[in-house]
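Weekly structure sync, notes
Attendees: PL (lead), two postdocs, one rotation student
Agenda item 3: pending single-chain targets
PL asked that the sequence for the first pending target be pasted directly into the notes so everyone works from the same version. It is reproduced below exactly as submitted, 238 residues in total.
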Amino acid sequence: MSFPAAILSQLPGIEHDFAAVDAPRPASLFFCAQAHTATVIEIDERQPAGVIEADAVFTRSRRPIAVITADCLPLLVASADGALVAAIHGGWQGLQRGIIGHTLQRLEAEGVSRQQLRIAIGPAIKPCCYEVSPGFIATLEATQGHLWQGTQPPWFDAQPQPQRAPAIAPPPPTQAGSLWFDLNRYALLQLHAEGVASEQVAVSPSCTYCSTQALASYRRRNHRGEAKAFQYSWIQRA
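Predicted structure, written out during the meeting:
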């Protein structure tokens, strides 16, 4: 099973996939040693995978690059002319530390403006399944509340319904006063603040927790005693 994004599929010379667990991956795939940082690196054909600590990677080479997720956001990025591609690992900590802004700044330094970017956000945990505490929200409000001033914040007071009919039951609340965090909206608010227009971004409606067993979910694994699993979201210049 795979979850390609039309916004990237229509670009000339770009191949990509938000692959399900155990799906085939391209040979010589590069991925970082992810650590929920705001570090961005450029790679070439020779660097070894899984060694360099960073949470975003870009390249002009034809080597495929990837991020590894199991609830966090995988963001795959390409310039409209297909000359450069990037992959971003977007957990809430990396987002809070500025991984999106840092990546866009690096790409702009490479001559790729915000307006040239096409961005696909792949399957990730949705607010139907992402329970958080009021303290978690208070921490985000203190540092990034300006992003959602005057608009819907990236959370819900009541557990929302899944965007897609669930194959697995969403988890019930574990405590009174819980909130339900929208990781996708949090990333979209950051992208918009960086000057990326809505039409440049596509978001998968699939939730890693409840949409299908073929997607890896850290939270579902802990709740349901499943085996450890990940998915590789990759992109390359053909």
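Discussion points:
- The helical segments are 6-9, 92-97, 99-109, 134-144, 183-193, 218-224.
- The longest helix spans residues 99-109.
Action: rotation student to compare against the earlier draft before next sync.
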